[in-house]
């Protein structure tokens, strides 16, 4: 039974993450975040907010801003580094609307595997609780998340701590 449930949550996927823009959900606003002097900088959201999506609207620096290389986000802040300065659309939800769970996901035979959170509307964060593979699991390289799933590749196998906003249509 557990194996059947686990297999229903996994599906192989060899395509790139969807580039389709979805309508913003939550409280969205424009935020400019700047790395002065090529230094790492955090742009925090409110104490009781959690980020559910970030998109770069306008790059304002001469340094090219590249997600995962010199900008990204965690649950409560946007970060920039290496001279990146840009205006971002930042969407948040109340921290009380976020639930967390543990999710095991494995890249068998170094193939890309997508592990779904069935009741997720938007995943806020996915961090490694425990790496289970010899192959290194590195954020943005061998694992990443989109709205409803964690994807692993390049032999990464880990148990992830995943925090997300539940889909309203699936709450009973």
Describe what this molecule looks like in 3D.
By secondary structure, the chain is mainly beta. It contains 1 helix and 13 strands; from the N terminus they run αβββββββββββββ. The chain folds into 2 domains: 2-17 and 97-170, no CATH class; 27-95, no CATH class. It is 4% helix and 49% strand. The protein has a 4-stranded antiparallel β-sheet with strand order 1-9-12-11. It has a 3-stranded antiparallel β-sheet with strand order 2-7-4, with no helix packed on it. The two termini are 23 Å apart. The model is unreliable at 1-21 (pLDDT under 50).
The parts where pLDDT drops under 50 for at least 5 residues are 1-21
Number of helices in the DSSP assignment: 1
- Structural class, from secondary structure content? mainly beta
| Main beta-sheet annotation | 4 strands, antiparallel
Distance between the termini: 23 Å
Shape by Cα distribution: globular
Total beta strands: 13
